[in-house]
Structure formats: structure tokens, C-alpha cells
């Protein structure tokens, strides 16, 4: 089935009008060649068509029929139609009806890309010994019963497609005058009957381009073509017939494949220069003139419990875009996050041009919230609508500015889960409407190919031109059948032939993974080291941790073979203490300990084990990833990966419970001891004394780790806490 694209002219207020700059020299002007197309609306597909015309230098030869007029050819998305195109072309060719020299090229526009200049197209046409040449496809449409009447084709596609043809004006006009046609009649059926009229076919030497020497129709033939880079430029090869098509038509259900190929063809992208198309139609916002920036709405959606929400909000706040040009809309659908959102809005909401919040207690659905946010955008006179979900972290502070400068109807920054292939776009879609991996997906996600990519699905973070929202024909929809909001949004845009782009021209940010986020836990971000390692490290690892590995850095030794490293920050230490105190089941400090095999502890402390708060696997991973490299740095020659530890626990010292610990050896190869609060502030006294060396460490710092040998050499004791409460984290590694 063929489709008629609909759309509207998409312009940013204060933005530059669409233009194309091609470095390709235009082909010599051919005065006897006219190129016709029909386009009633300036859709994204039409703009792409014009771009390819400009790239190959024949805009002066192009005649666009019906532009700005109502479409009168019926709904060819769902049924045959398109006779209106025939009527328009016939009227346009009346003045050339007797011209036997002028060559006419007709193509559709919304789903067509030129791959060559006119000189090559005409040269190929003249070599095929035809007066009129139609493109060919493998399906007999719209009347399958006519298949038996077609001449046999020894090789190639057998059936006529009306989306592209070339011929001499007098012969083309004769075909157009073959029989009457109404605007809502089917154009392909009209041309098919003309071709099947043997006398007409022979008189005007009508042929089909069976082997796609000029016209390549993609429907039913996507597997026949292959993208090639020749001489640093992208070209299309038909591998079945070993031809190089010159005009590409994404007829029927092949439009997504056309969009994908269109990311490269017509000099859009090449390995040497990258994305040449990316710069076309862009503008630059002058940072010294913030008053000229377009007004935008930033619409934040917190629809599920999300790790690292404070960091997400902080990244939005850091965007280098004048807040005097930003309205803020927040929909929080998670009661757990309300305190964080309220704190953010109270502290920063007044910095924006305006702000509006929908609370979790308002029980407004996500769909309704998205509709309300678009309405809010329009009431505030916004030029753009920036939608961002809480899993989207904008690490690049210029993301919003760069997206505006890109000037596309809908554009998303590429966001990927770190160390994964999960991103906020799909490269292609299966026949049943779900994710499929395109030929270039991995290279795009890994930033091995940088550019601006026309894709069939984006989610989580994108900028929409407000003119799309204000037009009911193009307004984004989040309610389509039983689809979730992301699927509905992309489906509605595809249905309306509105292009969605994802950009990885620069690194913009990343996605967090919310799948394992458990808000029943105390400080659940602490448990995200597996699924969101990058964010976990940013939040909890000490700023100076990597300095430990600087070759010019000498590890601190407060006592012989006792090493002192910054490893976690105070946010980590504070939250770990909160986890333990929320759990509250401290041991009684006696030798009887039912948590241990045998039930006996030789050197008891008041403590809580990591496995009691479901943190044992996370802590063992911490030992492997962050402690082991430090051990290998200072205790050279000892390797054990992963390290083992059966005893991982937080100890609490205070005068009214257990203020100190008797001298002892640890049952470990080495021990780590991380201070969790501040000496001299949270408690007085305390510390660790290594008896053999008569050396004590008392000025411990939160987040700094002592590491020392265990069983033999470092007999030690815990010094008395005289006031307050001291917390330390202990692991006996490789017992």
C-alpha cells in the first residue's frame, strides 16, 4: 500500500529558513529536461526530496505541482487513489504535448531521494531504447488480477510502479491522455492499464525499468539493496541485478528503510567528513545575546521510582540556557520522590520564567500530564517544548542549546545506558511495531558514527518545535490503541510522516536503569552499584580516589605497612550509617553470635553485618572494583581476584555500649577499616593502635580507608571512645 504524507511547514520563530549548501558542483544545466513532482504540503519528506535535488544541482529544472493546494487525491494511506497527480501533470504538460525532444522526469516527492545528477539519469535513459520508462516493482498493485496480462520479464521486477517515470514530453502526454481519470481514481492503475494496452505500449515504446537501472522501489526489495561507500561517498547498489540506481523510492511499507538509507545518501554522511547534512538549516545562538534565545518549556516527567533523582534535577539546573527563557513544568507520579521534588522547586523554581508542578497526590495520569504540559507550553508562547523523563541525565550542559540550534521538528540527544547497548532510540522496527536493530545501530550507540539520524522511535528526552504542537494535524499523541506513551508518541509521528531525529554529534548524557530500584530500602541509591555503576561512582566514590594511582603519588603510611587511602565520600558514609541505624539490630557485644557458624565470636563488637541489610553482594563487588586495585598497588605480589570476605560489618563504638576493643589479630590476609564519621566532631577519642609498632591512627577522616595486614604482624586494638558515637566499616579480606 502506498501512503500520502501529511504535515505542515515547520519553522522556529527567530530561526533561519531551510537551506542547503552543497559542496558538490552542480551538473550542467539541461534545458530540455523538466523534473515534475506533486507536493501539497512541505513535509519533512518533501524537504529531504528538495535537498537531494539541490545536492545534484537541478533545482532550476524542478516543477512542483499542487504546493499549498488542498489534496484532492483521496486517502491513499488506506485505499487506492492519487488520480489528482495525473490531472496536475497533464495540465502542466499541455504546452509540451507535441514536443518530441523535451524529456520529462516525474517522481513522487515525500518518499523519494535523488541519487544522481540529471546528466547521468538522462544518459542512462537514452541507453535503454525507450520513449517512456516506468519504474518497476515485484507486486502487482492495486489490481492483482491484472498480473497475468503483463508481458513476461526474463529477469527483474515485472510490474509497473507509478512513483517514478521518465520519457519524452509528447509520449508522456499521450499516456496522460489515454483515458479520463478522476482525482480520487488510482494513478498506478491508470498507468498500468496504459502500459497493458499493447498498441499504446508499442507506439510509445513504453518499458519498465526491470533491473532498477534508474528507479529503485524499496517495497518488497529492501533486501535487494546495499549501502556502499565509494570514493568516500555513499551510494546504493542493487545486489540482485548489480545495478546502481539513480532515484530511490520508499514506496509502501518501506519508508522506514528509506529514512535509514537517507541518513547517508545524497551526500548526507560519509566516513571522511562525517555528517555533512547535520549543518544544513542550523543556526547559532549567540551566548552574548541571551535575550534572542527562543522561549522553551522544560517538561519533566517522573513516572516511576528512579535512582539518582537529585543528580538528574541538578543536571537540568546546570543547562547553559538562560532561565529567563525557560518555563518549567514538573509531573511527579511517585510519592517517594515528592520531598526531593519539593526541595528542588522551592529552591530553584523561581529562577525560571515560570514553574508549575503536578504532585503525586494529584493522581493525574502520565498521558493527561503530557497533554497538560503541551497546553502549558502554548499558553506561555513557547517556541519549543523539551520533554525529559527522570531516567535521562544530561551530562553536557549545552544539550538544550545544541538541540535548539539543530533546528529540526523533533530531535533527541543520544542517551545510552553506560556499558550497555540500551539507548533512547530504535534503529528500525519489526512488522508488528517493536524494536529491531538497524545495520548501523551499534556504531551509532558506540559513537563510531557521529551524526544526525532519522529514526523511527525516540523516547525519554527530545525537543519538539512548538508549531507541531499548535497544529492539530501534527500535535504529538501519547494515546494510541494500547501502546505505552513512548510507543504511542513515536507511532503517531510515523503515521503522520513526521521525522524524528537522534543526534550523537557530541556526547550529551546517559540513561539510568530504574529496573532494580527498590524504594522500600533505606537510601536505595546505595544499592545501585550493579545497574548504574557510573552514577553510583559519581555519587559515592571519593573525588581523589583516582589520585591514589598517580605514579607520582606516594601512598600515605601513618604506621608501618598501614596504608591510608581516600575511597568514598561523606555522602556514602552518611548514608551507610543511616542504613544501619534504620535497620537497628545491633549485636549485643557478647561472644555469643548466632549470625556466625558455630555461634561464637572471639573478639565481639557491637555491629551489623552487611548481609543483614541485603548489602553483602554489593560490598563484595565494592571490594573487587575499588579495594583490590589499592591492595595490589601497595602489597605487591599478592593477587586474589575477586577478593573473598566472610566478615563485612559496621561497628558502633560509644561510651554507654562498647567504647573500645581489646588487642587482637584479624582473621584475614588484609583488613580494611573505613571511617564513617568525624573524629573530634561526632565523637571524642577512638582510633586504632598497632601494638607491635606502638603507633596509633586517631585523626581518621570520613571516607578514608586504612588497609593493613591481618593475621600475623599487625596486632591492634580499638582505642576508647570517650563521648559521642564512632562508626567504622570493617572487612576481613581473604580469611
Short key terms for the protein model shown above:
735 residues; alpha+beta; eight-stranded mixed sheet; disordered N terminus
Topology:
Elements: E1 33-38, H1 44-55, E2 62-65, H2 83-92, E3 103-107, E4 112-114, H3 118-126, E5 132-137, E6 159-168, H4 169-176, H5 187-196, H6 198-203, E7 206-209, E8 215-217, E9 225-230, E10 233-238, E11 247-249, H7 255-262, E12 269-270, E13 274-275, E14 296-302, H8 309-317, E15 326-332, H9 338-348, E16 354-358, H10 366-379, E17 384-389, E18 392-393, H11 399-406, E19 410-413, E20 415-416, E21 425-426, E22 428-429, E23 435-436, H12 441-445, E24 452-455, E25 457-458, E26 461-465, H13 466-470, H14 485-495, E27 500-503, E28 509-511, H15 533-540, E29 556-559, E30 562-566, H16 570-583, E31 607-609, H17 616-634, E32 645-653, E33 661-664, E34 670-675, E35 683-685, E36 688-690, E37 695-697, E38 704-709, E39 716-718, E40 721-724, E41 726-733
Parallel strand pairs: 1-2, 1-3, 5-7, 8-11, 14-15, 14-17, 15-16, 19-27, 20-28
Antiparallel strand pairs: 3-6, 4-11, 5-6, 9-10, 12-13, 17-26, 18-28, 19-26, 21-25, 22-23, 24-27, 29-30, 30-38, 31-32, 32-41, 33-39, 34-38, 34-41, 35-40, 36-37, 36-39
Amino acid at each position: 500500500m502506498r501512503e500520502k504524507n501529511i504535515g505542515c511547514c515547520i519553522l522556529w520563530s527567530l530561526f533561519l529558513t531551510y537551506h542547503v549548501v552543497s559542496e558538490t558542483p552542480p551538473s550542467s544545466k539541461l534545458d530540455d529536461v523538466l523534473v515534475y513532482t506533486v507536493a501539497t504540503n512541505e513535509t519533512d519528506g518533501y524537504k529531504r526530496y528538495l535537498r537531494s535535488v539541490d545536492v545534484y544541482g537541478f533545482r532550476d529544472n524542478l516543477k512542483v505541482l499542487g504546493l499549498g493546494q488542498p489534496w484532492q487525491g483521496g486517502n491513499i494511506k488506506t485505499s487506492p487513489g492519487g488520480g489528482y497527480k495525473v490531472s496536475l501533470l497533464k495540465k502542466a504538460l499541455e504546452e509540451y504535448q507535441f514536443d518530441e525532444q523535451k524529456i520529462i522526469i516525474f517522481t513522487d516527492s515525500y518518499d523519494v531521494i535523488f541519487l544522481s545528477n540529471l546528466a547521468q539519469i538522462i544518459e542512462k535513459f537514452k541507453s535503454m531504447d525507450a520513449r517512456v520508462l516506468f519504474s518497476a516493482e515485484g507486486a502487482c498493485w492495486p489490481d492483482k488480477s491484472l498480473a497475468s496480462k503483463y508481458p513476461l520479464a526474463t529477469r527483474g521486477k515485472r510490474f509497473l510502479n507509478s512513483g517514478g517515470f521518465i520519457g519524452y514530453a509528447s509520449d508522456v502526454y499521450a499516456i496522460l491522455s489515454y483515458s479520463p481519470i478522476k482525482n480520487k481514481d488510482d494513478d498506478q492503475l491508470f498507468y498500468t492499464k496504459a502500459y497493458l494496452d499493447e498498441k499504446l505500449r508499442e507506439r510509445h515504446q513504453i518499458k519498465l525499468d526491470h533491473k532498477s537501472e534508474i528507479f529503485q522501489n524499496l517495497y518488497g526489495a529492501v533486501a535487494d539493496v546495499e549501502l556502499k561507500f565509494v570514493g568516500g561517498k555513499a551510494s546504493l547498489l542493487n545486489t540482485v541485478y548489480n545495478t546502481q540506481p539513480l532515484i530511490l523510492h520508499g514506496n509502501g511499507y518501506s519508508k522506514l528503510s528509506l529514512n535509514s538509507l537517507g541518513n547517508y545518501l545524497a551526500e548526507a554522511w560519509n566516513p571522511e567528513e562525517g555528517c555533512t547534512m547535520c549543518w544544513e538549516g542550523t543556526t547559532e545562538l549567540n551566548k552574548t545575546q541571551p535575550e534572542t534565545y527562543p522561549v522553551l518549556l522544560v517538561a519533566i516527567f517522573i513516572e516511576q521510582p528512579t535512582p539518582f533523582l537529585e543528580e538528574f534535577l541538578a543536571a537540568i539546573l546546570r543547562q547553559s540556557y538562560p532561565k529567563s527563557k525557560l518555563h518549567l513544568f514538573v509531573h511527579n507520579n511517585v510519592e517517594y520522590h515528592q520531598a526531593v521534588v519539593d526541595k528542588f522547586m522551592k529552591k530553584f523554581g523561581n529562577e525560571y520564567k515560570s514553574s508549575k508542578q503536578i504532585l503525586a497526590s494529584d493522581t493525574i495520569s502520565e498521558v493527561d500530564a503530557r497533554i497538560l504540559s503541551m497546553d502549558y507550553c502554548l499558553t506561555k508562547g513557547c517556541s519549543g517544548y523539551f520533554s525529559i523523563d527522570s531516567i535521562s541525565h544530561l551530562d553536557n550542559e549545552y544539550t538544550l542549546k545544541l538541540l535548539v540550534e539543530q533546528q529540526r521538528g523533533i530531535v533527541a540527544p543520544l542517551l545510552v545506558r553506560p556499558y550497555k547497548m540500551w539507548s533512547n532510540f530504535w534503529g528500525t522496527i519489526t512488522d508488528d511495531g517493536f524494536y529491531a536493530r538497524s545495520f548501523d545501530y551499534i556504531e551509532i550507540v558506540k559513537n563510531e558514527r557521529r551524526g544526525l539520524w532519522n529514526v523511527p522511535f525516540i523516547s525519554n528526552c527530545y525537543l519538539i518545535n512548538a508549531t507541531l504542537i499548535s497544529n492539530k494535524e501534527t500535535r504529538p499523541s501519547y494515546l494510541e490503541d494500547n501502546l505505552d506513551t513512548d510507543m504511542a508518541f513515536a507511532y503517531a509521528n510515523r503515521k503522520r510522516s513526521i521525522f524524528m531525529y537522534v543526534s550523537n554529534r557530541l556526547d550529551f548524557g546517559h540513561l539510568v536503569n530504574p529496573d532494580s530500584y527498590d524504594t522500600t530500602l533505606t537510601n536505595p541509591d546505595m544499592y545501585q552499584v550493579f545497574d548504574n555503576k557510573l552514577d553510583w561512582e559519581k555519587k559515592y566514590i571519593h573525588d581523589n580516589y583516582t589520585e591514589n594511582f598517580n605514579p607520582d603519588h606516594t601512598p600515605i603510611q601513618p604506621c608501618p605497612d598501614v596504608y591510608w587511602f581516600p575511597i568514598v565520600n561523606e555522602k556514602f558514609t552518611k548514608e551507610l550509617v543511616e542504613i544501619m541505624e534504620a535497620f537497628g539490630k545491633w549485636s549485643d557485644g557478647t561472644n555469643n553470635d548466632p549470625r556466625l557458624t558455630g555461634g561464637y565470636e572471639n573478639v565481639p563488637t557491637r555491629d551489623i553485618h552487611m548481609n543483614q541489610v541485603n548489602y553483602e553482594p554489593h560490598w563484595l563487588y565494592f571490594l573487587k572494583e575499588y579495594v583490590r586495585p589499592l591492595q595490589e598497588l601497595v602489597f605487591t605480589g599478592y593477587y586474589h581476584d575477586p577478593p573473598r570476605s566472610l566478615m563485612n560489618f559496621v561497628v558502633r563504638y560509644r561510651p554507654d555500649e562498647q567504647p573500645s576493643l581489646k588487642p587482637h589479630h584479624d582473621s584475614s590476609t588484609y583488613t580494611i577499616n573505613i571511617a564513617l564519621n568525624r573524629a573530634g566532631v561526632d565523637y571524642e577519642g577512638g582510633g586504632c593502635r598497632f601494638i607491635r609498632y606502638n603507633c596509633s591512627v586517631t585523626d581518621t577522616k570520613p571516607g578514608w580507608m586504612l588497609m593493613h595486614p591481618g593475621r600475623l604482624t599487625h596486632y591492634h586494638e580499638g582505642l576508647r571512645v570517650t563521648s559521642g558515637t564512632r562508626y567504622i566499616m570493617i572487612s576481613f579480606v581473604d580469611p
